[in-house]
């Protein structure tokens, strides 16, 4: 199965004061650079879903794919944009990760693919991490219809669409930077993992 990675960076980052969360530094490196390093070996290529001027991400050397629906309706729109571009590239599926999770598991793609073509992550605490998922490109039409119909909650849509849940006990792998305090916590994790 040909899998393309899609980093979801289309949000507004309001809890972190705006701007691009993925361009914030941890251990002297942008969060997105850390994500690309961990995601690239797991997939056939990496796309970045982001809106606005793509030049701000030029240093990453990634194709930037904006939402294909208006009004920034959330991460489902980013998944849809990734699925549509991946289909055009001849891929079978996309592996999605958020732009604010610098320590994503190195075996994420392998474990989700082993579970099935449509899968979502559950952390060791029993909480879903729906932006970490494996999505077959043939779900793009149903997803486009759902987004057009007002669907916004990624976890809800995945559950209703029958995604397999894969449990991971590595909580650091799903740590995400949402607020200023999270940056300090991420620095501590980076010291431990780097």
Keywords:
single chain, 194 residues, alpha/beta, Spore Coat Polysaccharide Biosynthesis Protein SpsA, Chain A, seven-stranded mixed beta sheet, two-stranded antiparallel sheet, 6 helices
Q: Determine the N-to-C terminus distance.
A: 31 Å
* CATH class category label: Alpha Beta
The CATH architecture can be given as: Alpha-Beta Complex
Mean pLDDT: 91
Q: What would you call the structural class?
A: alpha/beta
> Biggest β-sheet: count, sense, barrel?
7 strands, mixed
CATH topology category name: Spore Coat Polysaccharide Biosynthesis Protein SpsA, Chain A
Give the DSSP E fraction (strand runs of 2 or more residues). 15-25%
Strand order of the largest sheet: 5-4-1-6-8-7-9
Q: Total domains, how many?
A: 1
Task: State the order of secondary-structure elements, H for helix, E for strand.
Answer: EEEHEEHEHEEHHEH
Binding site for Mg(2+): 100
Protein name: Molybdenum cofactor guanylyltransferase
Subunit structure: Monomer.
Function: Transfers a GMP moiety from GTP to Mo-molybdopterin (Mo-MPT) cofactor (Moco or molybdenum cofactor) to form Mo-molybdopterin guanine dinucleotide (Mo-MGD) cofactor.
């Amino acid at each position: 199965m040909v899998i393309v990675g899609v980093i979801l960076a289309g949000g507004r980052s309001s809890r972190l004061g705006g701007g691009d969360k993925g361009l914030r530094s941890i251990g002297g490196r942008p969060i997105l650079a850390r994500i690309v390093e961990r995601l690239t070996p797991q997939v056939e290529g990496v796309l970045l879903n982001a809106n606005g001027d793509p030049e701000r991400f030029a240093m990453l050397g990634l194709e930037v794919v904006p939402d294909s629906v208006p009004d920034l309706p959330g991460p489902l729109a980013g998944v849809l944009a990734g699925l549509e571009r991946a289909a055009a590239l001849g891929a079978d599926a996309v592996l999605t990760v958020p732009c604010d999770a610098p320590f994503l598991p190195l075996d994420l793609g392998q474990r989700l693919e082993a579970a099935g073509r449509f899968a979502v992550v559950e952390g060791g605490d029993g909480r879903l991490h729906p932006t970490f998922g494996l999505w077959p490109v043939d779900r793009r039409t149903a997803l486009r219809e759902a987004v057009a119909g007002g669907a916004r909650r990624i976890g809800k849509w995945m559950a209703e669409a029958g995604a397999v849940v894969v449990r991971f006990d590595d909580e650091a792998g799903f740590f995400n930077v949402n607020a200023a305090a999270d940056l300090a916590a991420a620095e501590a994790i980076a010291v431990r993992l780097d």
